[in-house]
Design a protein that fits this description.
There is one protein chain. The protein is built from 7 helices and 12 strands. With 210 residues, the chain is an alpha/beta fold. The protein has one domain: TIM Barrel (Alpha-Beta Barrel). The strands form 3 sheets. Strands 1-2-3-4-5-6-9-10 form an 8-stranded parallel beta barrel, surrounded by 5 helices. A two-stranded antiparallel ribbon has the order 7-8. Strands 11-12 form a two-stranded antiparallel sheet. β4, α4 and β5 form a beta-alpha-beta unit. The longest helix has 14 residues.
């Protein structure tokens, strides 16, 4: 069954509801973003979330020591790198920490795909949209045929980018990702989730895949 990650969590209420309805992972954004969360708040939320739920910290071109420190302080299960981090950065982080390293690739055209093959030691990748200088949280869908072709590398794919209750079933049918990642598609305002949309999104994923 395809897993669900609810990203851009900023408060305990949204986190609890997401878990209650079946989210497999929660994303906490530490990169520059209107959904950025303070370390102390993330720590408070995470301690009340079941250990079975993956807690993912999202970073972009942050110093390695900063990523390590936040990861340890917040007891993260994984870090998701959304910037221009190279394979050496990812390797060092993977070898010196206990959490999983997820690398994000922004697929705009065919020539963006081969770069994924360079990250041989990274088991989980996130495929997302990039619009201008805005990375992630764009609410815009990218060409899913590029994501389909990225399956050739045999990695676990987290599909992000403009997903919502109305298109997630088709996205899963086409791309067959390991996990789908939603942020803006279940918001009522920046940083606040719409309970109805979040519940509907999770239901569509869980009822539509096996």
């Amino acid at each position: 069954m395809t897993k669900v990650k609810i990203c851009g969590i900023t408060n305990l209420k949204d986190a609890v509801k997401a878990v209650e309805w079946g989210a497999d992972a929660l994303g906490f954004i530490f990169a520059h973003s209107p959904r950025r969360i303070k370390i102390e708040e993330a720590r408070r939320i995470i301690k009340d979330i079941p250990s079975s739920v993956m807690k993912v910290g999202v970073f972009a071109d942050a110093p390695e020591n900063e990523v390590k420190q936040i990861g340890e302080d917040c007891a993260l299960d994984a870090v998701q790198l959304h910037g221009e981090e190279d394979i050496y950065y990812c390797k060092r982080l993977r070898m010196s920490t206990s959490f999983k390293v997820i690398k994000t690739f922004h697929l705009r055209e065919e020539r963006d795909i081969p770069k994924i093959g360079e990250f041989k030691e990274i088991e989980i990748i996130c495929l997302d949209t990039r619009t201008g200088e805005k990375i992630g949280g764009t609410g815009e869908v990218f060409d899913w045929s590029l994501a389909e072709r990225a399956r050739v590398f045999g990695k676990k794919i987290i599909l992000a980018g403009g997903l919502n209750p109305g298109n997630v079933k088709e996205a899963i049918r086409r791309v067959k990702p390991w996990m789908v990642d939603v942020c803006t598609g279940v918001e009522k305002e920046i940083g606040r989730k719409d309970e109805r949309l979040m519940k509907e999104f999770i239901r569509k994923v869980k009822n539509g895949t096996s």
